[in-house]
Structures are given as structure tokens and as C-alpha cells.
Amino acid sequence: MHSATAMRRSRSAVHVLICLLLIVVGAVGSSLVQTGGGHISVQGLMIPGKDGAVASADLFRPDTATAERKAPLIIVTPGFQRTKETQISYSLELARRGYVTLVVDPYNQGESTSQPPHSDDPSIQPAIDYVSRTDTLNYVDKTKIGITGHSAGGSQVRRMAAEYGAKEVKALKKAKSPDSPGGTTITKEEREKAEKLNPIRSVFISGWLQKLNAKKFKNVRSNVGIGYALYDEGGYRNKNHNGDLRNAPEAIAVINSGLPKSQHVNHVVIGKGYGSAADRTYRVAYNDHTIHPFQPLTPSAIGSMIQFFDDTIGAPHQMSTTNQTWWLKELFNGLSLIAALVMLVPLTKLLLTIPWFSGARSELSPTTSAPSTAVFWGALVLQAAVAAVTYVSMPIALWLVVNGVLGLVIAWILLRHGQAGASGVRMSWPQTVRTIALALVAMTVFHVILGIVHGFFHVDYRLFILAIRPLTSHGFLTALTVVPVLFLFLPANSLLVAAPSDSCRRSGILLGLAAPVSLTVILVIQYTTLFSTGTVFWRTKWMQVMTLWSLLPALIVIPLFHRALHRATGRVWLGPILMAAVLALMV
């Protein structure tokens, strides 16, 4: 008995060490890519805003940017429900070309605080003031500041360009008054003073086209570029009901906003520059062959953004727009993410070799009977059908509740054909306490390692749109609001995976995967329709369907974790506890 325990401990320890090694390799690799091999310094900043609000930001500074050799600066902001780390493709590629880059978390997202209730100013505003009105960043050329944002961030940078442009317009109007220093003539000093009120030289709007018109650009005194996905899921809201910019009234309005009326166009040539960058009237539109959530992850779309700033501001280091390394960082980050999640299983097994925690483990009794094939497949089809129909008809939180309840009912029916104890349902109170303590210790170890990785390398765990960031008080409190909903769906899934069936555990995995398989059908329908017609199938729920790109991978992995942890503990409850903690923090 002791030798068996020692063997399990040794094997689990080796697996934990392998996972730790992979986490470190991923962290070191992503750090090396992020810092350009040591030529870019990356540091976190907290920028004070109005009424005590604080904007969290990451500053990318190339080593060529010095007080003697000032560099242009680009401020980047993500869209709704995204954090600054999701814009690494923009931040890193700009920094590699010599731009100082400041990427900012929107208020109420990432590490930024809530904004004041009476204010709707975006977090990018204090960032603009910070870099343009202080001398802290003495290596920045304040005459060469650009801003860019994706999706809702694109709307925000357009708004900022208009607000700061209005200050310049107002100052120039005042300079024309008879009682001004130059009378009705604007002097050089008056013009320079007015231009200082508007530090934004160039603005690139990514993934936002809705309601753009001449009025929205009336006060913009900056070069403007727009990049829009040809297959943007929200394109049906545009005037032409698609994402094609060539004859889009919104894109035409953007181009004409920089041209005199005699040169106005009635269609747009994609990629063609209009106006003058020197006069800040340059306009250009790019139509990237991608979809909305993948726009910051599409090399050609990233290249469009780079090209715009190269044309209007000028990169200190000339480099082809196709020369991109951000995806390497994503892969290294992904290695850390996968290794950290996988480590939860051997870590649990290792903890179970400790005498006190071993009380959380039970041996499974043989299943005495199983449901018929008809009952099993009927349950699977019912679960898949309900998951698909309810997803496009109700909010995600309610979907989790409804499908959690259905899963519990199906699991109860299947368990009636076997023994609840055989599937690891029943636990004593001491076993329950030990199981909860085991989960808490495992998650503590998980987040301590993540905190160390972030502290040393300024990276986290992520793979494109999936991510786990270092734990913060704001993130913890947000996670607490999500856990109750998850903790109805997840136990149901764990019970389905463990339920007795005609082919034992394997069919349980099929039951656990019924929901994600049916949701995959929704994605296929949505995007087949979009690519063939230019308009999505589900319009009112297009954003919720788009969320499946990040939700589906989690739903596919969950049953696998439930099975592994069920086999490790002999009970169905540790998996849902751990997965609830992981998913809540992802959210």
C-alpha cells in the first residue's frame, strides 16, 4: 500500500515538474518575443483619471527612443470585454518598428477601475493627456502622436479625435476675432497654440463603421484610417447591410471628410490614400478579409494598421508590414496556458497522496447496470437539441441555468439505471470539507505560479482570445458573481460524464460533449450564411453567437477535466469546483 502511494506520488510529481517546465519555457519565450529580444522594455502603468478613476496601461518603449532621439507614440485601446493584452499584435508590431506604444485597459475592464457614474469619458482620454501634457515620457515626440482602437475602441478613438479637434477648431475661431493678437488674421503663434490643444496627429479606426457620417468627422483635425472586416458579423447594421467598404456611405463619408467638396468621391478605392498627411487630411480605408473578433489576429489587417501609421507619422525603423512576430508570443503564451491547466490534474493527484487530503478520495464501486442504447442516445440528442435552441433564444447566464437543470435531470435518469455511489455522487461531510480544501490549495498554487510568471516576465496565460490573467481584487469580486451560475451547469456536466452507460466512461464523454457539438452547428450556420450572402443568419444575437469562439473551447475541455478528476478522486465534485474557479476568472 505504501509503495503504491509512493509510486503515485513520484509519478504525479514528475508530471507537475514537466508542466512547470513548460510554463517557464512558454513565459520565457513569450517575454523574449514581447521585448524584441531585449530591445523593447515593457512596464505597467496606472494613469489617474477624473474623480479618482485609474486607467491601467502597458508601456512598450524601444531602446532607440531616447531624450536625444525622440520617437513617435501610438496609444492603443481594445474593444468591449477585452483587455490591453488582447492588443499585443498592435502593440508589439508598432514597438518593433520604433514607435513607443501605450496600450490602455478601458474603464471597468482589465485592471482599470470603474469610471465615475456621471462621466462617459473613455480611459484613453487621460492617457492622451498624460503623454501630451507632461514631460514624464521625455523620449516621445509630442508632434507625432497617434491613436488606434478596435471595435468599441475604434468608436472611442474617433470620438477622441473629434473632441480634441474641436478644441483646435475653437482656438482657431477665437484667433480670427478682431480683438485677438493678430486681429482677423491667424498668427503663427496662434496656430501653434491651437494645434497643441489637439495632440492627435493620426487616428486608425479598426472594426467600427456604424453611424459614421460627415457630422462625426466635422471637427476631426487628424489623419484618419479605417480598417473593417469584409465579413464583419455586425455589418448588417451598416447602411448597405454588409461589410464591403467600396460603396459604403460610412466609408465615403470618412474619405470625404478630409477632402474639399470639389474633390469628393462617390466610391472608395480600398487601400488608396486620399488627401495630405502633412496637412492631417489623409484618409484611407482598408477592407480586411476576416471576421470581427479575429481582426486584431489577422496579419493583413495588422499590416493595414502599420501601413497607415507609416504613411502618416513615419516609423523610426522601416520594416515590411508582413514581418510580424506577435503570433510567436501567442503560441508561447498558449503553451503556458495549456501546461498550467493540465497541471491541475497531476497536482491534484500529488495532493491526494498527503494523508489528510487522501480522505477526499474514494474507490469507485462497479456499475451494476446501464441504460439501454435507446435511452442513452435519446438523452444525448435531447441535450444537444435543447442546448442549440436555447443558446440563440436566451442570455448566456440563463442558458447555463436551463442546460444545467436539464443535465441534472438527464444524469438522474441515467443514474437510476446504476448506483449513485458507483458514479461518485455521495460524499460524507468530512470528505466534502477535504474536497473543497483540495480545490482551494490547487487554485492557490495555480495563481501563485501565474503571479510569479507575470511578476518576472510581464506575461500571463492566454491563447489568442482565451486568457487567464493574474488575480486582482476586481477580478476576484467579478468572478464571485459568475460562480453561482457556473455551479449549476458544471456539476451537471460532471455527472453526465460519470453516468453509467452501455460503454462505460466513453459514452459519458459523449454526453458531456453534446452541448459544444450542437453549438458548433450554430457557428457553421452563422458563418456559412455570412460568407455566402454577406449577412449573418442570426442578427439580433450576432454578438452572442460570436462569443462561441471563446466559449466553445472551454465547453470542449471541461468534460475531459471532469473525467480526469473523477477518476483521480472517485467523486464528481472536485472537477466542477476547479472548473468554476478557472472559468469565472477567465470571464
Task: Chart the SSEs and their pairings.
Blueprint: H1 2-34, E1 40-48, E2 54-62, E3 71-77, H2 88-96, E4 100-104, H3 124-133, E5 140-150, H4 152-175, H5 188-196, E6 200-206, E7 223-229, H6 249-256, E8 283-288, H7 299-312, H8 326-351, H9 355-358, H10 373-391, H11 396-415, H12 429-457, E9 461-463, E10 466-468, H13 473-498, H14 505-512, H15 514-533, H16 542-546, H17 548-569, H18 574-586
Parallel strand pairs: 3-4, 3-5, 5-6, 6-7, 7-8
Antiparallel strand pairs: 1-2, 2-4, 9-10
Helix pairs in contact: 1-8, 4-5, 8-12, 10-11, 10-15, 11-13, 12-18, 13-14, 13-17, 13-18, 15-17, 17-18
Note down, in words, how this protein is organized.
Keywords: Hydrolase, Membrane, Transmembrane, Transmembrane helix. InterPro entries: AB_hydrolase_fold, FrsA_esterase, PET_hydrolase/cutinase-like. It comes from Cutibacterium avidum. GO terms for molecular function: carboxylic ester hydrolase activity. Residues 172-193 are annotated as: Disordered. There is one protein chain. This protein has 18 helices and 10 strands. Helix 4 runs antiparallel to helix 5. The chain has helices at residues 2-34, 88-96, 124-133, 152-175, 188-196, 249-256, 299-312, 326-351, 355-358, 373-391, 396-415, 429-457, 473-498, 505-512, 514-533, 542-546, 548-569, 574-586, and strands at 40-48, 54-62, 71-77, 100-104, 140-150, 200-206, 223-229, 283-288, 461-463, 466-468. It has 2 domains: 41-317, Alpha/Beta hydrolase fold, catalytic domain (Rossmann fold, 3-Layer(aba) Sandwich), CATH 3.40.50; 360-585, no CATH class. It is elongated, with a radius of gyration of 27 Å. 47% of the residues are buried. The mean pLDDT is 89. The protein is an alpha/beta fold and 587 residues long. The chain starts with a helix and ends with a helix. Helices cover 51% and strands 11% of the residues. The strands form 2 sheets. The protein has an 8-stranded mixed beta sheet, sandwiched between helices. It has a two-stranded antiparallel ribbon with strand order 9-10.
